[in-house]
Amino acid sequence: MTLDVAAPANPRLGTRLFDFLLDYGLYVALLVLVIGLSIASPFFLTVNNLLNVGQAIAIVGIIAAAMTIAMIAGQLDLTVGSIVGLTAVITAHLIVNEGQSILVAAIVSLIAALAIGVVTGVLVVNVGINSIIATLALGLAVRGLAFVVAEGQQITIADPAMSELVYARPLGIPVPVFVMAIIYTLAAVLMYWTKLGWHLYAVGGNESAARRAGIPVDRLKRLVFLITSGCAALAGLILTARASSGIGTYGTGLEFNVLTAVLLGGIGLAGGSGRIERTLAGVVLIGILTNGLTLINMPFYYQQIVYGIVFVAAVVLDAIRRKRRAR
Fold it and tell me: Quick one: three-class SS letters along the chain?
């Protein structure tokens, strides 16, 4: 008599399923979240609410696009939140206290932000300080400078022209959403269809090999800090217009939200890999989660717990992806 022994399950099936979830789990989670919130709240899938979500994620989204480019190149910029605050107070100070036009104030703020990007590049490239340490220290200094400019006070902009600009809805879509769409389009074109983008991937993947191949590594590393600083300034201008004021606390903790979205999108801390559209999906997921928790009236302190869990999950996923690539 023979015994029928069940054939062992395909050991590769579980691996393939895990790899699928690792690659596409973000989109699955986004779909599940949308379905769940649609059931939990009748207000979620309304046009007005979705447009509000788009406007709410614009600031984080714009900076996250720039941070994606920086992280692909193997760099990290933690000055972005402080630059948002500095941009806000410089813009408000020039308009309210110096009588400058909105355009002049915006240009000066942008120049100040780019100057910070230049300093960051010098610290990282010329001095040789790790980008995390350099930008963490510089971010503290920039935040202090923002409080100095505003003298620790909130500067209120009485002119409604600035807020009217950011709250305008051409074709029914908020201006910040248009700006974010343009930023992501430009970022995608840069990274996927230009030699500069390919070089940024190469620098993040293997800096030594990139140097041997004749790629201007130092120049590109300086460039990514200009990109992050410039996008942070743009986000700061949008925030200033939306609030009709400037204060040194604007942008506090913004790096946390940006990094969460970027890591959820699969852009690793090690550099050399990642895609712009995945960062956008991460930004949208965070925005929808925030909106949904608000709609179901979850207390703020519980929301903070949820965000912390999401951030830890993003870091864990990044570690798993790095181990998988190392195999």
Answer: CCCCCCCCCCHHHHHHHHHHHHHHHHHHHHHHHHHHHHHHCCCCCCHHHHHHHHHHHHHHHHHHHHHHHHHHCCCCCCCHHHHHHHHHHHHHHHHHCCCCCHHHHHHHHHHHHHHHHHHHHHHHHHCCCCHHHHHHHHHHHHHHHHHHHHCCCCEECCCCHHHHHHHCCHHHCCHHHHHHHHHHHHHHHHHHHCHHHHHHHHHHHCHHHHHHCCCCHHHHHHHHHHHHHHHHHHHHHHHHHHHCEECCCCCCCHHHHHHHHHHHCCCCCCCCCCCHHHHHHHHHHHHHHHHHHHHCCCCHHHHHHHHHHHHHHHHHHHHHHHHHHHC
